[in-house]
Amino acid sequence: VYGPRGIPHNFKNVGEGVGRIVLTATPAGLEDFFATIGKKLDGRDQMPLPPTKEDIQKLLGAAGDFGMKIL
């Protein structure tokens, strides 16, 4: 999938199992966004929890700092 800058795009898991995505972004820097908004899991097999209202507010607040607009 190609998600060019300036064009809205998203990812949706339509399956019944856990969705996983491998993402490559250029130029570098998007990893800092994920480090800012993400929560570290205890291990690879730990299931992430659904986002809380606080998680969503953190995401919305950080997006602009990284040149993103959440629609």
Q: Short description, anyone?
A:
By secondary structure, this protein is mainly α. It is built from two helices and no strands.
Describe this structure in words.
With 71 residues, this protein is mainly α. It is 27% helix and 0% strand. The protein is globular, with a radius of gyration of 13 Å. The two termini are 19 Å apart. The relative contact order is 0.14.
What's the helix and strand layout?
Layout (H helix, E strand, L loop, with lengths): L29 H8 L15 H11 L8
Q: Give the averaged pLDDT, no decimals.
A: 89
From N to C, what is the helix and strand string?
HH
What is the total tally of β strands? 0
* Structure classification: mainly alpha
**Uncertain regions: pLDDT < 50 for 5+ in a row?**
none
- What is the CA-atom radius of gyration, in angstroms? 13 Å
Main beta sheet: strand number and arrangement? none
Number of helices: 2
Q: Strand-residue fraction?
A: under 5%
User: Which word captures the global form?
Assistant: globular
Q: Could you tell me how far the N terminus lies from the C terminus, measured between alpha carbons in angstroms?
A: 19 Å
Proportion of helical residues: 25-40%
List keywords for this structure.
mainly alpha, 71 residues, 27% helix
